[in-house]
């Protein structure tokens, strides 16, 4: 795939053309699809890689105890200020720093209102979303301050570690974004509960548009 510039299906077909009995298990196929999506390199900072790692973690540690520390992003209160190209998100109530933009795990936009047909949404404003951002939450990787809430729990609330404001929720089996897309596992922070700021070259800050 890397040396010949082949996509996964093409590379697999080339192998089977030489050895027709060649087979691979679904797990390895998923890894190669991920490898292709990351440009045929292993990028531990990629959101795709982080999502895959979290999914594997839920499978390998069903009891959700003794989670590897490398799974958790560093608490921004324990690190240096964010760089100029990275935003910092803080609790809207007490201003406690919660996560950086590098921890946000993006996802493909879902099918919108059609994905919620089973909920019989009747409010036209909710169906059409008033032209606002279809995703009303950030889905992020776990951050160190979440660890006490996550250990041994399959799902629950995410509270600000300083003022206990409800920020969102988590579910290792996944949650549905307001855009309709299912995200698994899900660590969801409501955009209305946080403010984003970004450092300016002159040493000031600007608010990030959410």
From TrEMBL:
Entry keyword annotation includes Repressor: no
InterPro entries: Prot-tyrosine_phosphatase-like
EC nos: 3.1.3.48
Source taxon at top rank: Eukaryota
Gene3D superfamilies the record matches: Protein tyrosine phosphatase superfamily
Keyword Signal tagged: no
Similarity section: Belongs to the protein-tyrosine phosphatase family. Non-receptor class dual specificity subfamily.
Name of the protein described by the UniProt record: protein-tyrosine-phosphatase
Keyword terms of this UniProt record: Hydrolase, Protein phosphatase
Leading EC class: hydrolase
An annotated Gene Ontology molecular function: protein tyrosine phosphatase activity
GO cellular component: nucleus
């Amino acid at each position: 795939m890397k040396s010949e510039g082949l996509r996964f299906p093409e590379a697999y077909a080339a192998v089977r053309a030489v050895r027709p009995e060649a087979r691979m298990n679904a797990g390895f196929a998923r890894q190669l699809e991920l490898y292709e999506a990351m440009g045929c390199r292993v990028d531990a900072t990629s959101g795709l890689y982080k999502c895959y790692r979290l999914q594997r973690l839920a499978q390998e540690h069903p009891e959700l105890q003794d989670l590897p520390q490398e799974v958790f992003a560093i608490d921004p209160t324990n690190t240096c200020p964010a760089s100029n190209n990275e935003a910092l998100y803080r609790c809207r109530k007490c201003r406690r720093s919660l996560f950086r933009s590098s921890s946000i795990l993006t996802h493909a936009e879902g099918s919108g209102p059609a994905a919620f047909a089973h909920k019989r949404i009747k409010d036209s404003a909710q169906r059409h979303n008033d032209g606002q951002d279809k995703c009303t939450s950030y889905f992020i990787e776990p951050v160190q301050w979440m660890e006490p809430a996550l250990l041994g729990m399959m799902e629950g609330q995410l509270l600000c570690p300083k003022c206990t404001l409800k920020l969102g929720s988590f579910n290792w089996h996944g949650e549905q974004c307001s855009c309709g897309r299912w995200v698994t596992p899900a660590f969801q922070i409501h955009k209305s509960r946080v403010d984003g700021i970004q450092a300016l070259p002159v040493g000031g800050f600007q608010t990030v548009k959410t």
